[in-house]
Amino acid sequence: MITRSAEAQWNGDVMKGTGTVKLGSGAFEGQYSFNTRFADGVGTNPEELMGAAHAGCFSMALSGVLTRAGTPPTSIHTTAKVSLDKTETGFVISKILLVTQGTVPGIDAATFADAAANAKANCPVSKALAGVEIHLEATLL
Q: How high is the pLDDT of residue 103?
């Protein structure tokens, strides 16, 4: 079993406080606040970090699906758009849109779309986010 870690520190009340998030590997450390999450403040937020994790996991999963099929990709680029909505009971991550583009010699658009759907269904982050509506737009370049 592989275990990864990250940490967060929050200081102060929710509206005026500030925090930092840090990856256990040391590859990233950044600030976050109410304004970075709900407005246009400078820093990061949990949804942006979740999007990065999902885009990275999905891109690797798609590369794996394509490689196992004998058509390894030249490149895959994925953007994850994470939607945070306010509801009557509070905030909820309502959906994630994965927009991926790939350069894969020797396949057609339908094959790429099928591989992308397989990766979406089987990427560990997608599985962890099973309670969130996940949409996919896949384009073969």
A: 98
- Between CA 58 and CA 102 the distance in angstroms is 12
CB 36 within 8 A of CB 42: yes
What Å distances lie between residue 57 and 9, 27, 90, CA to CA? 25, 16, 28
CATH topology of domain 46-140: GMP Synthetase; Chain A, domain 3 (3.30.300)
pLDDT value at residue 125: 98
Residue numbers in the chain where pLDDT is lower than 50: none
* Structure-block tokens of residue 32: 């976050």
Q: Which residues have CB under 8 Å from 140's CB, separation 6+?
A: 101, 102, 103, 104, 107, 108, 109, 112, 113
- Can you tell me the distance from the alpha carbon of 19 to that of 27, in angstroms, rounded to the nearest whole number? 17
